[in-house]
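Hi,

I'm pasting everything inline rather than attaching a file, because the server keeps stripping attachments. The sequence lines come first, and each chain or strand is labelled.
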Amino acid sequence: MKKAHGLMLATTLLLSSLATACSSGGETAKPDANAGGAAAGGKTKLQFWTFNELHQKYFVSMAEAWNKAHPDKAIQLEASTLPFDDMHNKLLVALQSGTGAPDISDIEISKFPNYLKGTPQLAELNTVVEPELKNIVKSRVDIYSKDGKYYGIDYHVGASVIYYNKEMLDKAGVNPDSITTWDEFYEAGKKVVAATGKPMITFEATDPFSFWPMIAQQGSDITDKDGKVTLDNEKNIAVLQYMQKLVKEKIAIVAPGGFHHAEEYYGFMNKAGAASIAMPMWYMGRFTDYMPDLKGKLVIKPMPAWTKGGNRSVGMGGTGTAVTAQSKNKELAAEFLAFAKLSKEANIQIWKQLGFDPIRTEVWTAPELKEDNKFTQYFGKDIFDVMIEIKDEIGPINVNEKMPEVNDELKKTTLFKALNDMEDPAKVLKESADQLRK
Amino acid sequence: MKNHTVAIQAVEKKRSGSLAYNQRLAPYVFVAPFLITFILFFAYPVASTVLMSFQEVLPGQTKFIGFDNYKKLLNPTFYKAIANSAKYTVLTLLVLIPLPLVLAVFLNSTFMRGKNFFRSTLFVPALTSVVVAGTVFKLVFSELDSALANTFIGFFGIESQKWLGQSSTALLVLVLLATWRWLGVNIIYFLSGLQSIPTELYESADIDGANTWDKFVKITLPLLKPVTIYVLTISIYAGFAMFTESYMLYNGNRSPKDMGLTIVGYIYQQGLEKNNLGLGSAIGLTLLGITMFINLVQLKITGQFRKGD
Amino acid sequence: MPQTKSWSVQSVLLLLLFAAIAVFTLFPIYALFLASFKPSQELLRYGLNLRFDTELMSLKNYAFIFSGDASNYFGWYTNSLVITVLATLLCLLFSSMVGYGLAVYDFKGRNLIFVLVLIVMMVPVEIILLPLYKLIIGLRMMDSIWGVILPFMVAPLPIFFFRQYAEGLPKDFLDAGRIDGCSEYGIFFRLMAPLMAPAFGAMAILQGMGAWNNFLWPLIVLKSNEKFTLPIGLATLLTPYGNNYDILIAGSVLAILPILILFIFFQRFFVSGLTVGGVKG
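And the predicted assembly:
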């Protein structure tokens, strides 16, 4: 036994000297061959990473459209879909080590701040973003900016709305248009529970899409502009208390599976498990794909406000697409990205292919958005009426370096304790906030 | 055999002419693949992880920070990860040693029919990848009343559980997953041990009038000791190294209140997700310390180290 | 044993016990198998269930996979096959050589090397993931199948196993081989290795299983979708914003096949291989 131990120590010591020599040699890596922009048949190669296959398909189609429109600047898009966490890890490592990053990459909003730390290793997009600022929902590029420089462009607004099950509300004699505040929502909820025996709404306990919009619509947030933790402020406590009250009185339940993207949740909702769900616009796709039985039964309405006339929406979730600093063709990549994310045609395609609420506001009234597709068949032709109604009420959230950590804590601990374990909201918010401020 | 001496002389001659016949060199050639990979892919990484655990590793600049990484480890999340891994390991040991041992004895008994069929059937889960098994288990243990697990306990009048939403049942699901996947493998290990026990021993015990229980305790168990120790050892590693199972059940490394976080999950989180190689290395070495300690204790108790040359 | 088998009470009870265990063992796979023939919406509607509903069942999911539109499924499949075959063959070759060398030769440093093998066996791979990852970057083996295979090509467990097995080989074969004019390596490859066939069978299954189902290390090394192995490819279908069940479920069923075939093919070696090689210590 001793022998084995001694041996190990000896080898370890011997090799640690070797180790330093080797690692310094290893780090002077040449730039990755495939990061280069070698032209293939006159086309410039651009690498694109994403974590969602649909985004990949979308970008491939936009590359084809680009090549038709700009034969002189043709590109060859090499798109790759990686597992979610893995893609973000690899991109971060590649950017930090200075080699191996693609030209263009998707970065999910809750991960984005990790890429803006220090000197961002992403390319500035001001030249393409600034001319379009007046045409788009500005907060959807602001969230990916630092010191006045834009580094990412979102796919969608992610406007939070509420989806009511019309059939269930009718049974209770509740008119969705009469619900304008959360107090009215509570009262309506009582009626629905009495009439149907089912909860009015579901809340997430392991994801933030219930809590966050409800605090952000009244101007609060989990962090402030400077990245200070504001998780335990008065407004947030009040919101979480409100949520817990609804759960206690069985007007709300915690989403089966803990969040609105759990397999069991889809099955539960599909069988009309609850009368409403407050989620961003992009949640539409989950209904069409996973909850086919609710077709024609849902209405999309603005979320209730906290006070009469208060803000009703907030842009939630999102994925910023960025050009990396390592790209050899930053300008071309940025131009293409603008084409694929900011142009009118692109925004129509984002709706058609991905079912997202596009960030370019003018297309919301475009006839293409009323065209027959799986979304209009499911929700009716006037989906975007609600967007036009809340257009000026879609608040932003604060995206900063502290946000991912606070978001993680919220998802993992705070909401679960308050809504699942029914601990005191003020106490759990304070505990989490204190933990994060350390 | 007639020309024995001639043959040997011829061979000797040939040998001296070619390295392929060099008996002194041969063993080193045979073990060379191990030595090369040992140095490159084991000793060097171990050394560098030791080194990194005392460093802050940033791109382009690395500095020594003494024991700071280890100090950072003294936090509730890490304790939770250790507690989870330890509980999981102990529970898997409690299930995956006695159960397969007894089942293997049954399978090996003369009364058993369809031996080969059951042996193969029980092995099948081990062939599925954790990605597949995790997906299935997540669906089986979903919290809907109509989910398989809830339907099953419903037969016994137990109300539906949020399996993955409470630490106790979450641990249970993880242990069940391990049991499902590894029961058949361990049965085969024990079977192989049983088959190397000479039947004469049982026959002479029969003559002495020993009953089944006596034979099991006095012959089977002691002679299965080497296999048991082997299974115990690999189970301890597997237990403390568990990660992918929890990763799959919790959509990537995120479980409420960290109820599914394991030590390796924490390495993954700190080292790869947060790219903090220094802290990740410190966690890894703590894990090494734990497994080394347990194994040395175990080897000492069972007296295996002396035999290990 | 010369005892005759009869349908005694014990037999029936044992059979019942094992039948029950077999049902528990197989039902998740059966449920997955059934689900693979149903539309994914069905899965989400009712969860995983054991209903055999011929009206709902079709080969659509499989047709979709075979149509080539389904992600890069067959690319992943091919990669997994290539990596599994290469990794298993190389591992068997080298590990058997090392195990054999340790067993039949008496040479300086033999005990030391064997202790090193034991040490490697005792250290969980997970603790050196990070430096290994840095090393693979340094060796320019990121995103290549060699980066996946090489670090674990010579594995301690098979070495240990082959050594145990080779110790039981008749030593006179060695001398006979030398007399017949075989080189040391000829003796190994032509005479001894065939004698170790059961050991190769047992290790082929264990290593093949490991390589086919390996997740964490390939996840770290591979970074382009067209190089992914099956488990990682399947994992790309799981995103925080929704999963692609159509390919996931049928794809998972297909993923079990090759390794099942390998098992059926080699299983007669499996138990005998483990028995003789013996985990004796």
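The radius of gyration of chain A is 24 Å.

If the labels don't parse on your end, tell me and I'll reformat.
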